[in-house]
Amino acid sequence: MRTLVTGGGGFLGSHLVERLESDGHDVFAARQRDYDLTRFDDTERLFDEARPETVFHLAAEVGGIGANRANPGRYWYANLQMGVNLLEQARVHETPKLVIVGTVCAYPKYTPVPFREENLWEGYPEETNAPYGVAKKSILVGAQAYREQYGLDSVFLLPTNLYGPRDNFHPTNAHVIPDLIRKMVDSSDEIVLWGDGSPTREFLYVDDCVEGLVLAAERYDAADPVNLGAGKEISIRDLAELVADVTGFEGRIAWDTSQPNGQPRRSVDATRARERFGFEATTTLRDGLEKTVAWYREQAPAHAPA
């Protein structure tokens, strides 16, 4: 099957491409340097060249709290425009299947935990990532509208926070797990973390997410959005202690309470994914962290403890 993966050179995309190729698919991995999907003509050219039977739309502009605060306009525009262009080209090219990856950031700031898909429209997202979250919610509306009017088989998935090998470990633009790993592996002294450590998060190992994407492409055909998650909630403070244990970090952890916490709690109910296409996460948080730390140390051997 000819399969297009937007964001195919990114963190999640690279893992998905590997899985699809191992399953025998003819994969076209679209990268930003070759196709600017915020441009209609680039998106049109991509579909003309790839001629896909299945599309996984993973491309996004996204980062942690600091990056979201610095780029609210860009993140709203870029993510919305990419989704609009992908939907329209899938319609024009009569693409048989479109799998769109949304974001757990689309949920309201004070969503009851665990987040259920029916809660998605019950409030405004947490302010620091609202532009990104609202853009993704708009794409869901577009996907549902295109299904209703044009019969486009597009499905919309909401993964919880992802982590794993090849994640973004950038010093100023990383999410919490790669940021913790980088700081704790690269330093033996004090590290400073934002907020007070009280918010909770749920984390999904990247290979588990890939499994969910593949199952949804093969087995799911409906307008309802679907959560992908592991079903385990942990506070940022407890997460920091767990990462310290896995990395062997013995320095001091300081909390900068002048910086924002982000959303108070975040954990999803993945019942719909299990019932509709048989998805269940299998990687424990500790096992996933050990694999991620090992990968990071392989990439930066000079930083590994003696």
Explain this structure.
- By secondary structure, the chain is of the alpha/beta class.
- The protein has a single domain (2-303), classed as Rossmann fold, CATH 3.40.50.720.
- Helix content is 42%, strand content 16%.
- The chain has helices spanning 11-22, 40-50, 65-70, 72-92, 130-150, 176-186, 206-219, 236-247, 271-277, 285-299; strands spanning 2-6, 26-30, 54-57, 97-101, 154-159, 161-163, 191-194, 200-205, 226-228, 233-235, 253-256.
- The strands form 3 sheets. A 6-stranded parallel β-sheet has the order 2-1-3-4-5-9, with helices on both faces. A 3-stranded mixed β-sheet has the order 6-8-10. It has a two-stranded parallel ribbon with strand order 7-11.
- β1 (2-6), α1 (11-22) and β2 form a beta-alpha-beta unit.
- α4 packs parallel to α5 (130-150) and α6 (176-186) crosses α8 (236-247).
- It is globular, with a radius of gyration of 19 Å.
- The protein starts with a strand and ends in a 7-residue tail after the last helix.
- 47% of the residues are buried.
Task: Give me some keywords for this one.
single chain, six-stranded parallel sheet, 306 residues, 16% strand, alpha/beta, Rossmann fold, globular
Strand content: 15-25%
Q: In the CATH classification, which architecture applies?
A: 3-Layer(aba) Sandwich
Q: CATH homologous superfamily - what is it? A: NAD(P)-binding Rossmann-like Domain
Average pLDDT reading: 94
State Rg: 19 Å
CATH level 1 name: Alpha Beta
According to CATH, the fold-level topology is Rossmann fold
Biggest sheet, in brief?
A: 6 strands, parallel
Indicate the overall shape: globular
Query: Largest sheet, order of strands side by side?
Result: 2-1-3-4-5-9
Low-confidence stretches: 302-306
User: What's the number of helices?
Assistant: 10
What gap, in angstroms, lies between the N and C termini? 47 Å
Strand-pairing-aware structural class: alpha/beta
